[in-house]
């Protein structure tokens, strides 16, 4: 496999759409690690990078480290052998796709790109010794560590909510078994029943996600339970693509959907999982299906490794995504504090590529590339009704900010042909990004 030079990395990033077409430059946790145990990947002539987490950020970084420099010893640690994506999981709830289509494995990364894929939990990170201890006791050494731990939930923010009750009132905001529970509950809901969904306050993963879910549940109900009601109890007064979503809801679903803002009492304070009763200033609502998406924070591993600050997220050098707390460790994806970039799969994939470019540059003592990141969020309001928002990002005084005039949102008042075209783009976007990260 070819080793890229710095100029070729820049060209590759442009070709892959990871950067805007015009740019000038590319962009302690104290552990109980058993140090007497032999490391699986001993130090040698090859630089070693360990990537923890096989979602959009981690898979992207692992693949592009090998693309940019095939001589790097890259190990990806991910406990699951298959990965169901959150993007597309709302389409699954509506019956527009199936679980198999949105579930991917790591064979391409392992067999084609020669990434060492290990399916294990991480039990400890030792920044001083530069080691990662796996749950089975094995030890991995690294020269650079990339952590893409995703999110965790602040269950304690809502009375009655805990990890013990999510089998009854699933959040379904980490795709997999939770998604299947909600899928089943939606289909078993009585005719004319009430579905309550409670989106969290900012910041959280995939800002349009809860509202696409409202749309997809409405699409299912319109066909199968037309007298059902959807009540959206929101912890915020505004949300991503709000005008577009509300326009689509009114056009397609009439009065099926009611949205209650935080100012109007929508913020949920208490839930009773046994009776499926939700309490907020708007009232006490007895629902048939309850889908509370809890407030969020960085994934557990980020806290265990001491990578978070008082915000509950991970501060990083936003040019390289290297932690400002532990040198030599990079944090990408939802857990990182990445300026104006939303927490999304596309953002994580873009950050993974930029982080890979930064690490390769550091290994070769090249000048650090100047990053350009991108994000696109497509949402379906029905099978033939899509909307989108896109943006390009660059550094502004040490912080990631938007590029003026780049990106944009779908227009209000567009005709049916335009909305259908965007729905087709949404499905094309999903096929393209998942093929890039897991299947090619």
From TrEMBL:
Protein name per Swiss-Prot or TrEMBL: Cytochrome c
Annotated Flavocytochrome c sulphide dehydrogenase flavin-binding domain residues: 369-438
Keywords from the UniProt entry: FAD, Flavoprotein
Organism, as annotated: Thiosulfativibrio zosterae
Stored Pfam families: FCSD-flav_bind (PF09242), FCSD_central (PF21706), Pyr_redox_2 (PF07992)
Taxonomic placement: Bacteria, Pseudomonadati, Pseudomonadota, Gammaproteobacteria, Thiotrichales
Example GO molecular function: oxidoreductase activity
Xref: InterPro entries: FAD/NAD-bd_sf, FAD/NAD-binding_dom, FAD/NAD-linked_Rdtase_dimer_sf, FCSD_central, FlavoCytC_S_DH_flav-bd, FlavoCytC_S_DH_flav-bd_sf, SQRD, TAT_signal
Boundaries of every FAD/NAD(P)-binding domain copy: 48-167
Residue ranges annotated for the Sulfide dehydrogenase [flavocytochrome c] flavoprotein chain central domain, each copy included: 179-294
């Amino acid at each position: 496999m070819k080793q890229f030079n710095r100029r070729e990395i820049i060209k590759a990033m442009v070709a892959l759409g990871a950067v805007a077409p015009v740019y000038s430059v590319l962009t302690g946790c104290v552990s109980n690690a058993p140090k007497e145990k032999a490391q699986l990947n001993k130090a040698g002539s090859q630089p070693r990078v360990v990537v923890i987490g096989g979602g959009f950020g981690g898979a992207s970084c692992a693949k592009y480290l090998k693309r940019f420099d095939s001589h790097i010893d890259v190990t990806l640690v991910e406990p699951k052998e298959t990965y169901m994506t959150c993007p597309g999981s709302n389409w699954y709830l509506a019956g527009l796709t199936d679980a198999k289509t949105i579930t991917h494995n790591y064979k391409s990364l392992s067999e084609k790109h020669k990434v060492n894929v290990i399916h294990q939990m991480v039990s400890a990170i030792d920044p001083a010794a530069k080691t990662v201890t796996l749950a089975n006791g094995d030890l991995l050494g690294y020269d650079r560590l990339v952590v893409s731990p995703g999110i965790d939930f602040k269950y304690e923010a809502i009375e009655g909510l805990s990890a013990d009750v999510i089998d009854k009132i699933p959040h379904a905001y980490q795709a997999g078994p939770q998604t299947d529970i909600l899928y089943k509950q939606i289909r078993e809901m009585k005719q004319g029943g009430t579905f309550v969904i409670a989106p969290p306050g900012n910041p959280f993963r995939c800002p349009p996600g809860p509202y696409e879910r409202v749309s997809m549940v409405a699409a299912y109900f319109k066909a199968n339970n037309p007298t059902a009601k959807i009540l959206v109890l929101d912890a915020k007064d505004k949300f991503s693509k709000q005008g577009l979503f509300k326009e689509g809801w009114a056009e397609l679903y009439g009065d099926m959907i009611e949205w209650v803002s935080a100012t109007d009492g929508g913020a949920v304070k208490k839930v009773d999982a046994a009776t499926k009763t939700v309490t907020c200033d708007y009232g006490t609502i007895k629902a048939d299906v309850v889908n509370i998406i809890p407030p969020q924070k960085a994934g557990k591993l980020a806290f265990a490794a001491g990578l978070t600050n008082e915000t509950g997220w991970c501060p990083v050098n936003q040019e390289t995504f290297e932690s400002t707390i532990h040198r030599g460790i990079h944090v990408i994806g939802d857990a990182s504090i990445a300026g104006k970039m939303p927490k999304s799969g596309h953002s994580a994939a873009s950050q993974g590529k930029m982080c890979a470019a930064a690490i390769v540059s550091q290994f070769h003592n090249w000048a650090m590339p100047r990053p350009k990141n991108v994000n696109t969020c497509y949402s379906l309001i029905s099978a033939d009704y899509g909307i989108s928002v896109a943006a390009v990002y660059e550094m502004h005084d040490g912080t990631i900010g938007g590029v003026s005039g780049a990106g944009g949102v779908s227009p209000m008042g567009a005709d049916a042909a335009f909305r259908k075209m965007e729905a087709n783009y949404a499905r094309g976007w999903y096929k393209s990004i998942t093929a890039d990260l897991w299947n090619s």
